[in-house]
From TrEMBL, chain A:
Membrane-crossing segments per the record: 33-57, 138-159, 179-202, 223-242
Keywords of the record: Membrane, Transmembrane, Transmembrane helix
InterPro entries found in the cross-reference section: Permease_MalE
Name of the protein described by the UniProt record: ABC transporter permease
Annotated organism of origin: Mucilaginibacter dorajii
Top-rank taxon, per record: Bacteria
A Pfam family it matches: MlaE
Automatic annotation (TrEMBL), chain B:
SUPFAM superfamilies attached to this UniProt entry: P-loop containing nucleoside triphosphate hydrolases
Residue ranges constituting the ABC transporter domain according to the UniProt record: 2-238
Species of origin: Mucilaginibacter dorajii
PROSITE patterns named in the record: ABC_TRANSPORTER_1 (PS00211), ABC_TRANSPORTER_2 (PS50893)
Name of protein: ABC transporter ATP-binding protein
Keyword terms: ATP-binding, Nucleotide-binding, Transport
C-alpha cells in the first residue's frame, strides 16, 4: 500500500516534468479535452436530467405538509444537485467511462511496448501520456459538472411540469431562495479533485500494468474501483472542510 | 561504437545476466543470439536503458550511459533507433505520423521538411504511398518496415532490433534482414540485433555474441560459427535438420 502510494507520487512527479516540446503536448491536451469533455457530454446530459427530475419528485413526496412552503422543494433539489448529485454521480459515471478507457489505453501501450518505444526515443512517457489526461480532467470535469447542474435543474423543472405536487413557479422561486454561494464553490472544488483522482489513479493503474490483455482489463477495473472509493472518500472530506 | 562491460542483471533472486562484456562496432551487423531465456532481450534492454543493470557499464562512444540520469540520456537517446519485436507502432497514429513523431518532438523542421523525411524513410523501406494507413491496416512485415522507417527517421547512430523475424515468413524475413544490413552500412550505424533466427545468423551475422545461461558463451562471426567446436553453440545453431544438412555439405 505504502509502496504503491510512493510509486503513484513518483509517477505524478515524472508526469509534470518540463515537456520536450510544448506544441506537441498542447495538441495532446486538446485531444484529451475533446475526448473527455465533448465525448462525455451525452451521458452527462442524460443522467443529469433524470437525476434532477427524480430528486425533485422524491423531495416533493417527502415534504407534503401544509406547514412547509412548496418552494422548499426547489431549494432542497438545488442544494442536493449542486452539492452531491451533479459532482459525485457524474464523477462515478465518468470514472467508468473515461477512467477505464485511460487505464486500458495506457495499459495496452505498456504491454505492446509502445511506452518502451517512447522512452527509447527520449520522450518522458509519463509526461506525454499522463499530464494531458490530468489537465483535461481537472479542466473539463468542472465544465461537465456545471452542465450537469443546469440540466439537473431542467430535469426538476420538467418533473414539476408533469406532476401536480409542486408548481414550476414554486420550484423556480425555491431555486433562488436562501442561496449560499459556498455550495457552488464546494461543487467546483469537488469536480476538480474528482477529475484529478480519476485521471491519475486510472493512468497509474495502466502505466504499471504487466502481462497481456487479461492484466490490462484487470488494471482498468482496479482503476475504476479505486477511483470510485477515493471519490466518495474525498466527497466526505471536502464536504466536511467547506460546509 | 558501443561497449558493454561486465553486465549483471538480477530480477529478485534470479540472475539473468552474469558478467557480459563485448564491443559492438559501427557499420557491421552485431547479433546477440541464444536460446529462449538465455538473456538476449534483457541484455538489449540493459543496453538501451529500459532495464538498469545490477552492475556493469554501457558506454556509447565512450560516454557511460549507465551513470546518466534521464535528462542526460536524452541527447544519446535521440541518436538511438529501435525496432521492437511487435513493432510497437503507435496505434492512434497513421504511418506518417508514427515516422514524424520523433521529428516533431526533437527537431525544429518545418512540416514540409518532416513530411519529406517521412516520405524518404517510407521509400527507403519500400512502403511509398502508405502514409495514411493506420498500423491496424498493415501486415506483420509492413509493420516491421514502418518500425524501421520510424527508427531511422532521426538518422540514428545506433540501431537496436529485437527479434526482427518473429512471426514473418522466410521471404519477408530475408527482406527485413537485408534492409537492416543495407541501412547499417549506408548510415554507418552501430546495429545490434537480437535474434534466434539461423537465416539471420548466417546471412548478416558479421559479429555474433552467443549467450547461454546468462553468460557470453562464444563470440565470433558467421564465417567462424560453422567451424566452432563449442558444444552448446553447435547444439543451438545446428538444431534444425536443415542446418545440419547444410553443415554436412560444408
Amino acid at each position: 500500500m505504502i509502496q504503491s502510494l510512493g510509486r503513484y507520487i513518483l509517477l505524478l512527479r515524472l508526469s509534470f516534468r518540463k515537456p520536450e516540446k510544448f506544441s506537441v503536448y498542447w495538441a495532446e491536451v486538446m485531444r484529451e479535452m475533446v475526448s473527455a469533455g465533448i465525448g462525455s457530454l451525452g451521458i452527462i446530459m442524460i443522467i443529469s436530467v433524470f437525476i434532477g427530475a427524480a430528486v425533485t419528485i422524491q423531495t416533493a413526496f417527502q415534504l407534503i405538509s401544509p406547514l412547509i412552503p412548496k418552494s422548499v422543494v426547489g431549494g432542497i433539489a438545488r442544494d442536493s444537485t449542486i452539492l452531491e448529485f451533479s459532482p459525485t454521480i457524474s464523477a462515478l459515471v465518468l470514472a467508468g467511462r473515461i477512467g477505464s478507457s485511460m487505464a486500458s489505453q495506457i495499459g495496452t501501450m505498456r504491454v505492446t511496448e509502445q511506452i518502451d518505444a517512447l522512452e527509447i526515443m527520449g520522450v518522458n512517457a509519463p509526461g506525454y501520456l499522463i499530464s494531458p489526461k490530468v489537465i483535461s480532467g481537472v479542466t473539463m470535469f468542472p465544465l461537465l459538472v456545471i452542465v450537469s447542474v443546469l440540466l439537473g435543474f431542467t430535469g426538476g423543472y420538467i418533473a414539476c411540469l408533469t406532476s401536480s405536487e409542486v408548481t414550476t413557479f414554486d420550484f423556480i422561486s425555491g431555486l433562488s431562495d436562501g442561496f449560499n454561494p459556498i455550495i457552488v464553490t464546494t461543487c467546483l472544488v469537488k469536480s476538480v479533485v474528482f477529475g484529478f483522482i480519476i485521471t491519475t489513479i486510472c493512468s497509474y493503474q495502466g502505466f504499471y500494468v504487466s502481462g497481456g490483455a487479461l492484466e490490462v482489463g484487470q488494471a482498468a477495473t482496479r482503476g475504476v474501483v479505486y477511483s470510485c472509493v477515493m471519490i466518495l472518500m474525498f466527497d466526505l472530506i471536502i464536504s466536511r472542510l467547506f460546509l | 561504437m558501443i561497449e558493454i562491460q561486465d553486465i549483471y542483471k538480477k530480477f529478485g533472486d534470479n540472475e539473468v545476466l552474469k558478467g557480459i562484456s563485448s564491443i559492438f562496432k559501427p557499420g557491421v551487423n552485431n547479433l546477440i543470439i541464444g536460446g529462449s531465456g538465455s538473456g538476449k532481450t534483457t541484455l538489449l534492454k540493459c543496453i538501451v536503458g529500459l532495464h538498469e543493470p545490477t552492475s556493469g557499464d554501457v558506454l556509447f562512444n565512450g560516454e557511460n550511459f549507465t551513470d546518466m540520469g534521464f535528462e542526460q540520456r536524452v541527447p544519446i537517446r535521440t541518436h538511438i533507433g529501435m525496432l521492437f519485436q511487435n513493432s510497437a507502432l503507435f496505434d492512434s497514429m497513421t504511418v506518417e505520423q508514427n515516422i514524424m513523431f520523433p521529428l516533431n518532438l526533437f527537431t525544429n523542421q518545418s512540416k514540409a521538411e518532416k513530411r519529406d523525411r517521412a516520405n524518404f524513410c517510407l521509400e527507403r523501406v519500400n512502403l511509398a504511398g502508405k502514409n495514411k494507413l493506420f498500423p491496424s491496416e498493415l501486415s506483420g512485415g509492413m509493420k516491421k518496415r514502418v518500425g524501421i522507417a520510424r527508427a531511422i527517421s532521426m538518422q540514428p547512430k545506433y540501431l537496436f532490433v529485437d527479434e526482427p523475424n518473429s512471426g514473418l515468413d522466410p521471404v519477408t524475413s530475408i527482406l527485413i534482414d537485408d534492409l537492416i544490413s543495407e541501412l547499417t552500412v549506408e548510415y554507418n550505424m552501430t546495429t545490434v540485433v537480437v535474434t534466434h533466427d539461423m537465416n539471420s545468423v548466417m546471412g548478416i551475422g558479421d559479429h555474433i555474441v552467443f549467450l547461454h545461461q546468462g553468460k557470453k558463451w562464444w563470440e565470433g562471426s558467421n564465417k567462424e560459427i560453422a567451424h566452432t567446436d563449442n558444444k552448446e553453440l553447435n547444439e543451438f545453431v545446428f538444431a534444425s535438420r536443415f542446418m545440419r544438412a547444410a553443415k554436412a555439405k560444408l
